[in-house]
Amino acid sequence: MDLPFLYETFLTLISAVPLTLQLAASAIILGAVLALGLALCRLSGILPLDWLARAYIFVFRGTPLLVQIFLIYYGLGQFREVRQSMFWFVLRDPYWCAVIALMLNTASYSAEIIRGGLLAVPHGQIEAARACGMSRLLVFRRITMPLAIRQALPGYSNEMISMVKATSLASVITIMEVTGVAAKLISETYRAVEVFMVAGAIYLAINFILTRFVAIAEYQMSPHLRQPASLRDVPAAEAR
Amino acid sequence: MKLMKTAIAAAFAALCIFATGAAAQDKTEITIATEGAFPPYNLTKADGTLDGYDVELAHYLCDHMKIKCTIVAQAFDGMIPALNAGKFDAIMAGMSATDKRKEAIDFSISYGSTGQSFATLKDSDLAKLPMKGELFSLASNEAGARKAVEEMKPVLKGKVVGVQSASIAARFIDEYLKGVVEVREYKTTEQHDLDLLSGRVDFIMASMGYLKTAVEKPSNSDMIITGPRFQGGFLGAGSSVGLRKSDTALKAKFDEAITAAKNDGTLKKLSEKWFGFDLTPQ
To answer: Which CATH superfamily is domain B116-235 in?
Structure first.
């Protein structure tokens, strides 16, 4: 094993990490907003909205992300109308094309995860809140949403992790994120195994940190599963 | 029992001798990799079959060497590691024999040299780059080439250039125009053509042979070749057959076959058919 080469590769690849993180973060955040909207459309009970969301999810979940990236980047750029439209200043830039493709893709998966979370909120809790006199909006904000997030979090963390890895596909539209830089290094040095090993380790490290954050969030959101702090340290005699 | 053991040992020994004997013999069947997306060197026809200068020449060379060849399409950027991993035995994909590549694999003698040039859109201000069509060799006239680049710099400043990833054009931009232009790297040359047409890049740099066919495509009618042409030095003596370093016998055969193709006019005939000009290395 050539340690100096691995170290040099690591230094080159680490410089591309901010771009990978930026891509993943913008796609996840924008995608989550779109996904919430889609999930609410699905549950709205209004037929046209429901079917619109169904069709969207069907298309974006059923086609490969790579194809979506190619269509948005090379496909849209071929039309003169698109090139002359006001959207061109966004679509001209490979970075925004990648963010849009990743966002649209993750939104379709996340919408179903959020819908599942919302549907899993026990009916009795909503009824109890209504009985206390809370308005529908207040019930949604205080009861439904926090419970839905708690229930959707394990599934949603999967989606976040797969988004971090999916940013590697952005390298096909000239974006020099970790995989893009790795591919360039390989074609310069012809040492595929070493370079991909380092790149894989970098993704592993990013996702390790991400899963830790999700674990902390999960802990914070489930106090009902922990022993109440006030009782833990009280000696048995005093507790009586 | 002892007899059986002896028989097995004898059979095994015979197998070993046979196996080494076969390996030492000359290959009668090889697989050649090409890209199938780099016209006119190699291209994939509408019916899915491969064609082009590389492919036709490969057939000629194989006939000459009396070897049965299978030609397969492969992604260009993983070809050298795949050759060394034994996925195929030779590369004919318009690949230039550069020093960097020579560290990893061996090359036959050159079978065609076109040089590198630029292309842009008709209505771009780069369409009037100086020294259009002039040829500069990095090997014999490095100073002249440098002077030509200096003359182009004011026009090129701040522009975006598209090149194929890890190509010699990419290295040229890196060595001569670093910091002057912004570089975007593409997996295939067809992708940088698309981005040139859509206005994402201002100009592209690629092999003259490639550019010549690219501008003739109906969909690329707005594209024109511009500026000087560079060759030699790290731009390579031209396209060569890439071979594993251990396959010295195969290299000798390819060298001999290419020399024959050069002498009997096959290189001239095929290059004029596919490129419209003579590529025979002098």
So the answer is: Periplasmic binding protein-like II (3.40.190.10)
